[in-house]
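Here is the promised in-class demo. Please do not try to memorize the tokens; focus on the logic of going from shape to residues.
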């Protein structure tokens, strides 16, 4: 059983690689971004507050996010987790390590996906996803085979995220460098950090991640 964190700035390719690991290794993807987008569409007061924060590109409070992850971890069964977009602060990292201890599990690797800022803007502004199955596409690097139709499920509900504007992206990048990048040092000190070059093709990045996971 493998538990792995994918760590990287917005657009690094965390979601894309997490979905491959689900398909290829049967791991369970825990994306706090996806959980929060679900909360956003719930129509509750909490969902409305979450929506405002996310659309600006700021971080949602540790309390909310840790609560969501704890709920999923406690209810999940099966073979290992991919943490996608979590943890994002040192408080979240400490909470995750406590949760894993409580469940008798441990963290195997933290994979930092390194990508330069110029590539991130192009990736984020070209991204769209399937509203039905969640498949992630890109105008240039991964278009759908038939225009306007998801390759995986055939849905025509293709969407762009409200926080994928250049302005919200600037705020998201700032949050990454201010609050999340200290986790690189944190996990290096815990001897969990592995680095992959996130600038390669989707297949090349997947091959590098596989090498890290298979080496143990
Ligand atoms: P979240 O949904 O986690 O967004 P993010 O971290 O900004 O990451 P993205 O989903 O934008 O990018 P990604 O790395 O998954 O890239 P992708 O694979 O899609 O969080 C959104 C918001 O929720 C946050 O801003 C915050 O408000 C809140 N939030 C979430 N978690 C939180 C937490 N723990 N604490 C507090 N707040 C939290 O790829 C991007 C594009 O590039 C796609 O089009 C893809 O096709 C393309 N692409 C991917 N890989 C490649 C490649 N190798 N080559 C070429 N193109 C590629």
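The designed amino acids, position by position:
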């Amino acid at each position: 059983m493998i538990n792995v964190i994918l760590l990287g700035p917005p657009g690094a390719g965390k979601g894309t690689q997490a979905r491959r690991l689900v398909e290829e290794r049967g791991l369970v993807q825990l994306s706090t971004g996806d959980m929060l987008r679900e909360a956003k569409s719930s129509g509750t007061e909490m969902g409305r507050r979450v929506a405002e924060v996310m659309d600006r590109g700021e971080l949602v409070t540790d309390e909310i996010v840790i609560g969501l992850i704890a709920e999923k971890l406690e209810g999940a069964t099966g073979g290992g987790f991919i943490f996608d977009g979590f943890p994002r602060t040192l408080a979240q990292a400490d909470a995750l390590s406590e949760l894993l201890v409580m469940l008798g599990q441990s963290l195997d690797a933290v994979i930092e996906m390194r990508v330069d800022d110029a590539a991130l803007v192009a990736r984020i502004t070209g991204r769209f996803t399937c509203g039905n199955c969640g498949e992630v596409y890109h105008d240039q690097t991964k278009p759908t085979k038939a225009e306007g139709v998801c390759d995986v499920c055939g849905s025509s509900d293709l969407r762009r995220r409200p926080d994928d504007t250049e302005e919200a992206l600037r705020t998201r990048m700032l949050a990454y460098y201010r609050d999340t990048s200290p986790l690189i040092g944190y996990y290096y000190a815990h001897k969990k950090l592995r680095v992959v070059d996130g600038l390669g093709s989707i297949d090349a990045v997947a091959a590098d991640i596989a090498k890290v996971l298979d080496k143990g």
